[in-house]
């Protein structure tokens, strides 16, 4: 007698194909849909801030009687660019200095303004390396590693304090997963920070995905053994 060959019921095979096709379609459609949604959400947010202050004669919606997405965003970009152009010449610089002098004399507001201005100047200046490097530090205990964004070397009073202790410290930002919008500011010894070659964008994707999206990478140099980094025997 011929051996009986068991075959899977056709309905199971069809269900498996349907599930695989659905998952494949989800992988294709979900990123596109989320990207489009986030883009339009940002455009609507910008429009809600700018469009209400546009005079009717300068608002295209007044002539076409329909909402035109992106009008406020375009106006904001043009306005910021013009302000930047004017602020770089003598007359515009004088106006900016006058406005800053008023803010600097206003209680409470001056502290907020100086802090925000210093942050933007530090992050956006051409030579800035703030948050452009990614590293690893041992946190919350030895042998456990956390991904961090390198902010800058310690400055001011903090640097003086650390120098008195004979330590060269670096400020790093430790974000949580999966929403890296908040976190911890840590000062770690420079020799305990392991710099990575991945970009901040790749690190952000790694954090948001909970470690699922690991960037492809070819190491340029071999990692230094932990014992050697701590000054112990090799």
Description:
This protein is an alpha+beta fold and 234 residues long. The chain has a domain of 97 residues: SH3 type barrels, CATH 2.30.30. 50% of the residues lie in helices and 13% in strands. It contains 8 helices and 5 strands. A 5-stranded antiparallel β-sheet has the order 4-3-2-1-5, with helices on one face. A hairpin with a 6-residue loop joins strand 1 and strand 2. The protein is flat, with a radius of gyration of 27 Å. The model has no long low-confidence stretch (mean pLDDT 77).
Question: What is the fold's blueprint, element by element?
Answer:
Elements: H1 10-50, H2 60-64, H3 71-87, H4 90-104, H5 109-124, E1 133-138, E2 145-153, H6 156-164, E3 169-174, E4 184-189, E5 194-196, H7 200-208, H8 226-229
Antiparallel strand pairs: 1-2, 1-5, 2-3, 3-4
Helix pairs in contact: 1-3, 3-4
Give the proportion of residues in helices.
40-55%
What is the typical, i.e. mean, pLDDT? Answer: 77
Number of helices: 8
Spatial separation of the terminal alpha carbons: 69 Å
* Major β-sheet annotation: 5 strands, antiparallel
If classified by CATH, what would the architecture of the domain at 133-229 be? Roll
Kindly provide the name of the CATH class of the domain at 133-229.
Mainly Beta
Query: Any idea what the shape is?
Result: flat
The proportion of strand residues reads 5-15%
**SSE order, one letter for each helix or strand:** HHHHHEEHEEEHH
Low-confidence stretches: none
Strand order of the largest sheet: 4-3-2-1-5
Based on secondary structure, the structural category is alpha+beta
Gyration radius from CA atoms, angstroms? 27 Å
Oligomer: single chain
CATH topology annotation of the domain at 133-229: SH3 type barrels
Q: Care to count the β-strands? A: 5
């Amino acid at each position: 007698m011929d051996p009986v060959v068991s075959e899977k019921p056709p309905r199971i095979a069809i269900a498996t194909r349907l599930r695989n096709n659905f998952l494949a379609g989800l992988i294709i459609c979900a990123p596109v849909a989320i990207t489009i949604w986030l883009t339009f959400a940002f455009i609507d947010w910008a429009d809600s801030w700018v469009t209400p202050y546009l005079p009717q004669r300068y608002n295209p919606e007044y002539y076409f009687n329909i909402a035109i997405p992106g009008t406020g965003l375009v106006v904001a970009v043009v306005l910021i660019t013009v302000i930047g152009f004017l602020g770089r010449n003598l007359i515009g610089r004088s106006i900016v200095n006058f406005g800053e002098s008023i803010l600097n004399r206003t209680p409470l507001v001056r502290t907020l303004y100086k802090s925000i201005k210093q942050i933007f100047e530090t992050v956006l200046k051409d030579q800035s390396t703030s948050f452009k490097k990614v590293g690893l530090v041992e946190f919350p205990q030895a042998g456990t590693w956390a991904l961090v964004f390198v902010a800058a070397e310690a400055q001011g009073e903090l640097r003086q304090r650390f120098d008195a202790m004979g330590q060269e410290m670096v400020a790093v930002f430790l974000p949580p997963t999966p929403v890296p919008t908040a976190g911890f500011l840590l000062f770690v010894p420079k020799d305990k920070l392991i710099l990575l070659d991945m970009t901040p964008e790749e690190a952000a994707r790694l954090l948001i995905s909970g470690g699922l999206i690991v960037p492809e990478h070819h190491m340029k140099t071999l990692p230094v053994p932990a014992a050697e980094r701590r000054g112990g025997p090799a």
